[in-house]
Amino acid sequence: MIKEGLSPREALKEYFGFNNFKGQQEAIIENVLKGNNSFVIMPTGGGKSLCYQLPALMMKGTAIVVSPLIALMKNQVDVIRNIDGNHSIAHYLNSSLSKGDVKKVKEDLVAVKTKLLYVAPETLTKEENIEFFKNLDISFVAIDEAHCISEWGHDFRPEYRRLKTIVRQIADVPIMALTATATPKVQYDIQKNLGMMDAKIFKVSFNRPNLFYEVRPKTKDIIKDIVMFIKENPGKSGIIYCLSRKKVEEIAESLKVNGINALPYHAGMEASARARNQDMFLMEDADVIVATIAFGMGIDKPDVRFVIHHDIPKSLEGYYQETGRAGRDGGEGHCLTYYSYSDIEKLEKFLHGKPVAEQEIGNQLLQEIVSYSETSICRRKFILFYFGEIYESEECSINKKCDNCRDPKEHYEGKDYVKQVLHVVDVLNENFKSKYIVNVMSGKPVAEIKTYKHDKIPEFGSGKDHPGEFWNAIIRQLIVKGLLKKQIEKYGILKLTKEGRNFLKNPVSISLIKERSYKGDYDASIITKEEGGKGGFDETLFGLLKDLRKEIAHEKKLPPFVIFQDPSLEEMCLQYPISIDDLTKINGVGQGKASKYGKPFLELIEHYIEENDIERPDDYVIKSVVNKSGLKVHIIQNIDRRQSIEDIAKAKGISVDNVLTELEAIVSSGTRINIKYCIEELLDDDSIEEIVDFFRETRTDDIHKAFEEFGGDFSEEEIRMVRLQFYSDFAN
Which domains does the chain show, CATH number per domain? Predict the structure, then answer.
């Protein structure tokens, strides 16, 4: 039951089971309770949702939460309902509901039973809904994923531009805008568009100290490398992002044949299949989800231990948000990205044909992700600088939490090179982007340089003794060091800062870092396993508790983390609670949750203590990877769909012999197949047994010998198919 008159801290303990707020949560909630506008910039995993959930439960009326993420809505509604036990306390309105469902939601809203209503922006813009909301007692409006408002954001959505007008039509109430990724430019766009320049800004550090950032060159062995990485992290949840649906399917199949419990997820799948795969991942019935960016936004799974980017993202904002899905519970989170400039070139082609302004924005965002990928400076420092935050701590270097800090590159004296770059920027009147500056220094007579006659100035070719990559690296470092700055509004034109001008007048010693090369060969067998998590707890008990949680989750048809999150289980493995009172002292366990789910956990812990004579605290071989070509994936998928070999061959315009050759390669690599349905259409049981007996008894797999033995009674194709099935059944 919702209780009135509680303080924010009392309400936090009552509803969510936590004793303390994280970061600025308490200040944000108090600002909302006072009726003020709030702008919350908080990284993924920082606890944004609590900032609107808790005041919604405490205030009179219904809070509207605008979100573009249907999966988020369902997930968060389930969490709130689970806290209170009242189905009507939280609802969502979106295109997934039937007319009957919509009617029930509206009845609960009119009856003032609902404290939180999640709506899609498209739902909010419908005139009939606007009129309906006008008659409700609205406490405040929260706009999640607010970066969708800005064209400079990584996920711009035009319908978000109408939100200010619509909210004003509905009610004169406080607005809360929330986002996990916002550069200074995007922040300004959000405030201006929502008409909330007076909002109090709560900006939490974008630093995620538990995440390890790594970039590896993308080579032909990438699948092998990914498989090895996952094998080094057995049983851990992970997400692999790809840009294309085809690549998602290929990688998911590759992981499956190597014994990894992986599922695909992309917009081309049927909605029911997508939902099933997502639920299996949340319920821990699958370890890895391979997905396009259609997956993950708002998915509240706290124990994702790694996020792999098979393809480079389109922007640093997108990268930050996607990697931010790792380690949301504060535990281990490995962010591994594979980089090849050829991927950037493909993304650049996608921009062709779009309006010029959109191309300029898209290209600049791509160049930022190139700079991040190729840099040798601390990756954490680079990311935070991009979001307007200066990272001066040595924590990343000390704890080796990025590949550049783990394996630092050589430093060199850069005074003369820095002076040379700053001089060229100055001579060109601070009117050009880094690419243009580098082309001038490299002496490249491209058309644009000839147009401006900059091929005639003394500085043209002044840096041709070094490749363009060398000068690009220096420019990147000078931006982070504060000697140069990019003008975002002018698509990345370089300007000298005050510090840069001072350096030009009085050059001093300056240390630069040699850049990494992502063009050479990479030994995919070298895998560094990062230590993560919180160590020190009883890992045997932790495993037993996780198994119990999974069992109860299946019974209740809830994701496991709804029962208890990993940090709570870890604390149980330190404190060994044996009573409900003990359990409520565990962080993240409120009275309601302890009463609802605690009994079997307490019984298991008590039995474990007795069995192991524990004194409680006083105060309470990777398989070889199949060459997963598109053809192999097509064949495997259609075998699973029980298509005939002839139909599979015809669809690809190849012969049956080609299909069988591909199948033989698949089976010999260790993959099991089932083509019995094909064989049984061609041969009776006795004939099949006769061929199987030949291979079993003669101990040979020679097709020609078998053909000769049977004197032409069976075709080579028939014998090959039976041999394939025999080999699959008994060898794999």
Answer: 8-203 (3.40.50.300), 211-406 (3.40.50.300), 426-513 (1.10.10.10), 539-612 (1.10.150.80), 630-731 (1.10.10.1390)
